[in-house]
């Protein structure tokens, strides 16, 4: 049984995440989508909501488990769950620069390998942060998120979906 972990905060999960998770499930027998909470960060959605959205969206794919991951080391979590790999999507060279030292550290700590998958070209620009900003300013994000996420984004954003302030485009 070859098991991989796709970690992230998924606040909320979007099509770029889903595409990488689906590709990971073609490479491994089981993929654990490990939903993290960093207590120094402020999230739009609670841990339970983030997990629920991921589960709803991934329900049709076989061999995928969505579960919370605690505050400890990811390398330790992978060892505990019997995962031989961490799968990460790469959008840019800055993603790579950020991920490389963590990948090396995780391998040295527990032997877990990190597998990088290049992001699909039409999802390269997607991040949860940008999607939330666009949605809050009344922009159309239905091409970027699954339906259950869209519903929640619209119901948790500023009233009417419009906010004052700068748009993400400046
Ligand atoms: P964070 O843990 O920084 O909050 P996210 O939850 O946004 O990260 O994303 C989790 C992981 O999903 C990232 O580390 C990256 O590997 C992958 N990812 C994020 N956005 C994309 C994208 N647009 N295309 C492919 N992979 C992505």
Description:
By secondary structure, this protein is of the alpha/beta class. Strands 3-2-1-4-5 form a 5-stranded parallel β-sheet, with helices on both faces. Strand 4, helix 4 and strand 5 form a beta-alpha-beta unit. The protein starts with a strand and ends in a 14-residue tail after the last helix. It is 41% helix and 18% strand. The longest helix has 18 residues. The chain has one domain: HUPs (Rossmann fold, 3-Layer(aba) Sandwich), CATH 3.40.50.620. The protein contains 6 helices and 5 strands; from the N terminus they run βαβαβαβαβαα. About 4% of the residues have low confidence. The chain binds adenosine-5'-diphosphate. Adenosine-5'-diphosphate binds next to helix 1 and strand 4.
Summary, kept brief:
By secondary structure, this protein is an alpha/beta fold.
Main attributes of the structure:
6 helices, binds adenosine-5'-diphosphate, single chain, five-stranded parallel sheet, Rossmann fold, alpha/beta, 170 residues, globular
Can you lay out the helices and strands and say which pair or pack?
Blueprint: E1 3-8, H1 15-27, E2 30-36, H2 47-58, E3 64-69, H3 74-81, E4 85-90, H4 93-110, E5 113-118, H5 128-136, H6 147-156
Parallel strand pairs: 1-2, 1-4, 2-3, 4-5
The structure holds adenosine-5'-diphosphate.
